[in-house]
## 1
Amino acid sequence: MVTARRYAGAVGKKVLILGAGFGGLELGTMLSEELGEEAEVTIIDRSDTFSFGFSKLDMMFRGASLESVSMPYSQAVKPGVTFLREEITGIDPESRSVTTSAGSHQADVLVIAMGADYDLDATPGLAEHGTEFYSFAGAEAAAGPIASFNSGHAVIGVCGAPFKCPPAPSECALMLSDDLTRRGVREQCEITFVMPLGTPVPPSPETSAALLSEFEDRGITFIGGRRPARIEPGKLTLDDQTELPCDLFLGVPKHRAPAVLIESGMTEEGFVPVDSATLKTKFEGVYAVGDCATAGVPKAGVFAEGAAKVVARQLIAEARGQEMTDPYDGRGSCYLEFGEDRIARVDIDFLSGPEKTGVFNAPSLELRAEKNEFGSSRKARWFGLRD
Ligand SMILES: Cc1cc2nc3c(=O)[nH]c(=O)nc-3n(C[C@H](O)[C@H](O)[C@H](O)COP(=O)(O)OP(=O)(O)OC[C@H]3O[C@@H](n4cnc5c(N)ncnc54)[C@H](O)[C@@H]3O)c2cc1C
């Protein structure tokens, strides 16, 4: 464990963080808190704002605009941390050098926190005839077709695994059912949810059972172990050639690391392999955290943040001439929209014990307050903003 004592001497290491999502923001915040002006941290992101992944569901079903859920990086400036708005165009992990739309950067420590990207072309017809809801643009665009869907067959389909926030497509199915009920058209509509995993949340059988029971109560058909293979107007074909009628397709595209990371030669099977305990890649002085990495944990913001904390503790310990011995424990809690405004929580522990566990906390209105606090505490910590 690293002590809270402030490091007195010069840190002397330039830390370059690629990506200002959950992982990059937490890492920059911790280094600034502990090392202050001596931190020498630069964060590069192509965007000028950050938004929580779960805001996509608010945009689809609660009328939220992208602007209303966006936080500007200009508010995230902290001692010792510089934000650069640039597109990362090349990474050389051997020399820890990075090229961007604005020039080049050299680092002593490079932390890749670039999230996951989507491969729409992996599912023929998704780009032309479906609506993916995993990007902010996609979620914004899906709000219209959802609002005008009054009859027929809606399919929520996961086109590949791993994918971020495993409960999110289940949340989408329940929120769609609520929306149709609210508008008085639920009886004219069918909802099917297709995913390549056998159950909605495999590491938590209790969560899966609760979701399956909720689907049954609401007449949502669950097809596990199958993947959408082709989307055509009015029709969806699964990977076993089963055909389903489909008037509204809400899709989770196949995920992969951003192209620039794949081109850097750092990825294997689409993502950057890391040591689960330390988040180190095989390249000296290069770490990877969050959705772009394969760290043995689910792809979710809370795990990107947890991994970033472990990297931060190592860098702080190094700066103080200490040794960091606590490995990443792979623990984190995910909140699930269960419909009718209720929230459930699943407490995941993937790395600290002999077995992966996922403890289910039944849906309640009280847990909504806890989810709200999850968002507002990060908003305050990273951006100094109050709700
Ligand atoms: C519908 C939905 C609901 C979700 N709900 C939850 C939830 O309730 N709880 C939870 O914990 N997680 C949730 N998630 C998942 C969560 O949003 C992600 O897992 C999380 O954002 C990953 O954090 P990250 O730091 O790895 O990457 P990201 O947050 O994706 O950040 C990566 C950053 O890298 C930048 N970047 C990428 N490529 C480049 C480039 N070439 N140049 C410059 N910048 C670049 C991007 O602009 C981005 O800011 C949800 C996701 C979805 C889609």
## 2
Amino acid sequence: MTDSTKFFLPEDRLPKAWYNLAADLPEPLAPPLHPGTGQPLGPDDLAPLFPMGVIAQEVSLERWIDIPEPVREVLRLWRPSPLVRARRLEKALDTPAKIYFKYEGVSPAGSHKPNTAVAQAFYNKEEGVRRLTTETGAGQWGSSLAFAGSLFGLEVEVYMVRVSYEQKPYRRALMETYGATCIPSPSPNTAAGRAILAEDPDSNGSLGIAISEAVELALQRDDTHYALGSVLNHVCLHQTVIGQEAMAQMEMAGDQPDVVIGCVGGGSNFAGLAFPYMAEKLKGAKVRCIGVEPTSCPTLTKGPCAYDYGDTGQLTPLVRMHTLGAHFMPPGSHAGGLRYHGMAPMVSHALNLGLMEARAYQQTECFAAAVAFARQEGIVPAPESSHAVKAAIDEAMRCKQEGKAETILFNLSGHGHFDMQAYTSYFAGQLTDPAFDPAALERALADLPKVAGA
Ligand SMILES: Cc1ncc(COP(=O)(O)O)c(C=O)c1O
């Protein structure tokens, strides 16, 4: 035990390999299926969208996958990221629990997203791709890919969910600073966007729609690929630098987490922190992993596990995941990065195998937790990350009630410096907690694709 507050690893302790949970799962993941034939996908089916380096990782069962040196070189701009003990928060809560957070907001884009953006840009560049299309919710992923594209000399075109485009104008400016183009989605540029606009010219947009637009454009040009900021196995894989570093830093602190927490949108920051701990859990370690989502988009807590499309326009492969249905339209909350109808197949599988728990919170209680955290620890959390903050505080209060000195580790996946309008609305009492509409879920689930034998 030390009385330090921050735990830093030197640059040469940046992990040399990514950890692949698929190698250790007691039951294999269900294969992704071709959207046309319903048959398991082969690498060639994915080649129009992704580089082979990434496709190989998507299906790999190797436990460790080397991180290419040019990727490590870029990650060293901000990694290893700090682990911080939230001593002032502990004191303010008067809890016997110890609270640590891994802080991913130190990256250039302000979140964990560049960990995979850099890797994806590298593999695309290696394969001779010139242009990448993508979607973004709150803008964290779009600005991360824009940043990575600028380092590897790739053009980047980002379709940003309209409600976030309007809420976060400076995210767009950041993407443009890195040389990318940012377009509000749904847009008239694609058939998928035009179809939505014809039905609802004022559509808020959703990640599912923005993905359709980006995928449609990538399929049209040989020099263009698509990049996804979450959900897929390779994205979760790239994020495991977070958990590996955290393990080494917890060792420096002379402590071990009893509870590991991350917010879940598509599942990648949670996976990045928790998967290395799940590997220990599979070997018998006692650690609880908790994924936290918004009650307005409760994929893990209310969605069944089924084969579904990753996008609204039904262009992507079918993957088996917890889903609210590809046509589910979440209300326009401020945690834009958590407004996704599906969940990473790996995270979905981990939940089904009992390796993790899931819970959901309303947005106003998350903002209250984020403000309490900021007033003790100084960092203003991204609205997405505030879900993890809320769960960490609730766990610390449970420890207080039970008189237990447990150790809680959570992922502070990003800062909220571009999200201050959300805080302003919160302070003005303008944020509501949209009621979850079970009928809307039922309607969206009625459209789930019928997959034989699934
Ligand atoms: C700061 C932050 N945290 C979390 C998320 C959720 O994504 P994921 O579940 O893939 O980590 C996002 C997505 O945009 C984000 O910007």
## 3
Amino acid sequence: MRAIIAGVSTPTPLEQIQIGPITTQDSEPLFRWFNDPQAARLDYAWRPVDGISHQKWITSIGTDPTQIWFAIRRTGHAGIIGFVILRNISAVHRSAELGVRIGEEGDRGRGAGKEATRQVLQFCWQAQFIDGEWKNVILMGALRPRVAARGS
Ligand SMILES: CC(C)(COP(=O)(O)OP(=O)(O)OC[C@H]1O[C@@H](n2cnc3c(N)ncnc32)[C@H](O)[C@@H]1OP(=O)(O)O)[C@@H](O)C(=O)NCCC(=O)NCCS
């Protein structure tokens, strides 16, 4: 979908999008996108993904502590339009790599990649999901009274 503004064709922005977990229903579009060499070659050295490996991957997606996958969806819609991955998460260095893909050409350039990246970065800075929202955790400590002070 495109809009014409002052003679220039610009893509219509997507309605609101949100990030969330990958589900088994996302398997087919993800398999298709992983096997889209045109899009993948802009990200990494592409190689085809076979169906058996893909099934194994999607059933074990939450088990690798060094990676987190997020589905990108239009708010209120079940279908996946893209994904964000945090990979090489290092608890020691508190670092990670972020990758983002919008699956279909027609959904690109309409703000979804930028908004999904913003939401995942929010996730990265927050510590606990409580009562439906991400909360910062404030670490507090109490100092043990000094031995000399206690001893007198
Ligand atoms: C790259 C991609 C994730 C961007 O998501 P998107 O929803 O299309 O992009 P948005 O509309 O949110 O635009 C976000 C910004 O990225 C820029 N942008 C979009 N596609 C771009 C591209 N291929 N190259 C450089 N910049 C791009 C936009 O101009 C915009 O910049 P601005 O904030 O300064 O205006 C998406 O187009 C995609 O998956 N493309 C196919 C794979 C690909 O190109 N991968 C490269 C990743 S390094």
